[in-house]
Amino acid sequence: MAGVKIFDTTLRDGEQSPGVTLIPEEKLAIAKQLAKMKVNVIEAGFPISSDGDFNAVKMVAENVKGVEVAALARCRKSDIDRAWEAVQHAENPRIHVFIASSPIHLEYKLQMSEDEVLNNAVEAVKYAAQYTDNIEFSAEDASRTGTDFLARLFKAVIDVGAKVINIPDTVGYAVPSEFGQLIKDVKEKTPNIDQAEISVHCHNDLGLAVANSLAAIENGASQVEVSVNGIGERAGNAALEEIVMALYTRQDYYNLDITQDTTQIARLSKLVANSTGITLQANKAIVGANAFAHEAGIHQDGVIKERTTYEIMDAKTIGLDHNKLVLGKHSGRHALKDFLEKYDYELDQESFESFFKRFKDLADKKKNVSNADIIALLDNELYDYEKIYEMEYISVLTGKGLLPTATVRLKKEGEIIQSAACNGDGPVDAIFQTINELTGIEDIKLMSYKIDAVTEGKDALGEAFIAAEIDGKIFTGHSSQTDITEASAAAYIEAINKYLVYTKNK
Ligand SMILES: [Zn+2]
């Protein structure tokens, strides 16, 4: 059975979402999770665009195995050189070059003729071919380009070595039957198409990115470009989880082999939401909080009698076996190690010891510890980046008629820095004010602050999530603890640490 290649561009197109800043270590953590899910290609960035992007691509290329890693480049030698420099050490590196092909882009953006665009594309693919034979070529704004020119352009780049030709609906203008027809026409009109793979890259401006991608698959596309949670420029890209679950759930219709590990979806989605600060609408397909919730009594009754009466998917398929109780107070290192192995987490000895201690603390406070609790605790350890500030001590004094006052002691690069006490409008504000004073970073605008319970019950772990604007860029932090003031402070410090790592990288 044939399959469809999943090309994930969360780290490139997704990172172009308004307000998103990811430090290279966050990109690496996301890339590792993508590899666990067994996507086929990870587009890790656009190396010429910034040093941060270059470093991130290099880090992903050097550290993430079992997956192709792509780097984006315009049809320019300097772009291609930089892309190769970043991606060359990947197990299977790919150079992805693009140039616009539609009349509107040619006239206003490029001010080039069709022949000039074609020559440019051919030269770029030839140039990239001296580095690798794994070359993808994209005709930007393809859905608004005539099929005659597309076919001429694709024939020319395939002749000089392009192995994948990508047909993007860059502006999200296409509708499904028309986009499917476009793929079919390009296939028919490009004489050497059997030497290349057809890929599509759909944007969601009309909410049709997934539908258009599926129509393309039915008409001969064998690679789809997607992003986790559908993030990306403007309304975003086709959502990875929706495409994969559509193909999986309707295997009877598409008849395609699914080689991806769907059980990684929930974790991947959460990781991307936490790192980018783009939270999910509750009714988001597959990964929204309500995606598996039933409200109407008649539905609940049906699901209790037989799940498939109202559920077409099993939550377990996407990795939500949340409330299962797994470990308790008496579980030791061995049980915890088994858990980590089962869920494919790798911790070095030092992280394991610190994690074990936190697990014990939690098990002391809660009688039973669930899957979700442990995974939430583990997510605290996820980014292996330089933690410039660490929390040593925190206390908050608050109550009716009291002026909330926080006392915080931090460790900076191993050394304890003076505790300080500040007042605030409320207890959380008091904590943040104190941390601002201790770190000397005063210009922090809190964009979002959220507390959620990880599981049910009054002894549940509290998860604090923060998105803060520092120096015009948005950084996120999150932490799960039994004490929500502690979790809030840790999340706030994480955002500050990421900002410091980011400025250091620049
Ligand atoms: Zn795009």
TrEMBL record:
Please explain the role this protein plays, according to its UniProt record: Catalyzes the condensation of the acetyl group of acetyl-CoA with 3-methyl-2-oxobutanoate (2-ketoisovalerate) to form 3-carboxy-3-hydroxy-4-methylpentanoate (2-isopropylmalate).
Give the record's subunit note. Homodimer.
Q: Which GO terms describe its molecular function?
A: 2-isopropylmalate synthase activity; acetyl-CoA C-acetyltransferase activity; manganese ion binding
In its UniProt entry, the species of origin is given as Halanaerobium kushneri
The Swiss-Prot or TrEMBL record lists the needed cofactor(s) as: Mn(2+)
Q: Which SMART domains match?
A: LeuA_dimer
UniProt protein name: 2-isopropylmalate synthase
| Keyword annotations | Amino-acid biosynthesis, Branched-chain amino acid biosynthesis, Cytoplasm, Leucine biosynthesis, Manganese, Metal-binding, Transferase
Q: What is its EC number?
A: 2.3.3.13
UniProt key word Zinc-finger: no
- Which residues does Mn(2+) bind? D13, H201, H203, N237
Q: Output the Gene Ontology cellular-component terms.
A: cytoplasm
According to UniProt, the reaction catalysed is: 3-methyl-2-oxobutanoate + acetyl-CoA + H2O = (2S)-2-isopropylmalate + CoA + H(+)
Which top EC class applies here? Answer: transferase
Q: Could you tell me which residue ranges the Pyruvate carboxyltransferase domain spans?
A: 4-264
The protein's superkingdom reads Bacteria
Q: Which family does it belong to?
A: Belongs to the alpha-IPM synthase/homocitrate synthase family. LeuA type 1 subfamily.
